């Protein structure tokens, strides 16, 4: 409960209007580049291969005269849209983005840069954390869309070069019974996860005590806690948004 109280207090200090909007927007653009754009390559790379693997596995496991071949494309699309591009991708980004935020703030804490900001009368939580949180939450839909597109392309590549399923049937499966709401659902879910990743990582980094060893521990703890919270909220959000 002590940690939860500290987290709430930190968020109350963070989620206030910036004192200088020009500085805030400048910092936010830097964070979009560092946390979002720099994560694009790993999102595309992983999504292509996961899309390809899903297509192969589904194709090999539903070889039955009772199940039409286009089901491969249909299942691959549903898995990528509903779960992989939002939840699994955010678990991966919790390791990359979360550890980056926690280690950066932790290093600033142990080198007394945060203390210096406080002495100058600056709201250090708002100045350092808010641009990171806003940048990541804003950019995560872009990463999710690229992940969805790349995953489907991965399956298309497998269909084209292996013959495990014809391209025409794969494409038909992608179009079959498509529910546009699922894209919005995944984007909303990913934005909540982005808030969790950035805020939890900021908390662990901001309250580091000790030296370099503690910074590494804070980074690890932030990834573990973010992953647990992502899976917990995945269950809650799915129940609220999809269950009838």
Structure characterization notes:
Helix content is 83%, strand content 0%. It is built from 9 helices and no strands. 39% of the residues are buried.
Helix and strand layout, with pairings?
Elements: H1 2-14, H2 21-36, H3 40-61, H4 71-110, H5 113-119, H6 124-162, H7 167-175, H8 181-206, H9 212-241
Number of helices: 9
The mean pLDDT is 91
Number of strands: 0
Topology as a string of helices (H) and strands (E): HHHHHHHHH
Uncertain ranges: none
Query: What about the largest sheet?
Result: none
Over the alpha carbons, how many angstroms does the gyration radius reach? Answer: 21 Å
Share of residues in strands: under 5%
Report the end-to-end length measured between terminal Cα atoms.
Answer: 34 Å
Shape: elongated
Helix content: over 70%
Give descriptors for this structure.
244 residues; mainly alpha
Concise overview:
83% of the residues lie in helices and 0% in strands. The protein has 244 residues and is mainly α. The two termini are 34 Å apart.
